[in-house]
Amino acid sequence: MSMRIGVVISSTRSTRIGDKVAAWVAQQAPEGVEAQLVDLREVDLPFMDEPAKPAMGDYVHETTKAWGEMVSGFDAMIFVVAEYNGGYTAQLKNAVDTLFAEWNDLPIGVVGYGYGGAARAVAALEPVLATVKAVRVPGPGLLIGQHLSPEGEFLQAAPADEMRALFEAVRAQAPALV
């Protein structure tokens, strides 16, 4: 049985490299895993626009319903996390906060990238994922200068083996497939 994993591009900047990083992450998917890019720029969610709390599950806006259906269509996700000023992007926070039940028990791998591997952003994301009851699966921090260039080109030292291990760890956490 093939597993579907959404690889989320968290940066929406016009000058981002997150799309290149996420494409490389998706290319590391092992056999039996369909990795599909999910670009938050294209998802284009309004900021906290639902009248009811997400935990109520009473979504009225088509954008929220479509986002919920997209997330529910995956067996797991991998967030490709940029670090801006020590945190992760507002768009990623909004994407998580817009839903609730869809995250419950969903395995989410986390891959940071930046000069410090996005360590602070990844750490800030942990309690948020715990609150929405996602199953967080830690992944590698990709370092600019060691693993990739500032332009998002991957270098020889890029940890492809660690990425494949992350996919396997995420697969092992998917309840329907265990």
UniProtKB/TrEMBL annotation:
Lineage: Bacteria, Bacillati, Actinomycetota, Actinomycetes, Micrococcales
GO cellular component: cytosol
InterPro entries: Flavoprotein-like_sf, FMN_Rdtase-like_dom, NAD(P)H-dep_reductase
Gene3D superfamilies found in the cross-reference section: 3.40.50.360
Domain NADPH-dependent FMN reductase-like: 3-146
Gene Ontology molecular function: FMN binding; oxidoreductase activity
Protein name: NAD(P)H-dependent oxidoreductase
Pfam families linked: FMN_red
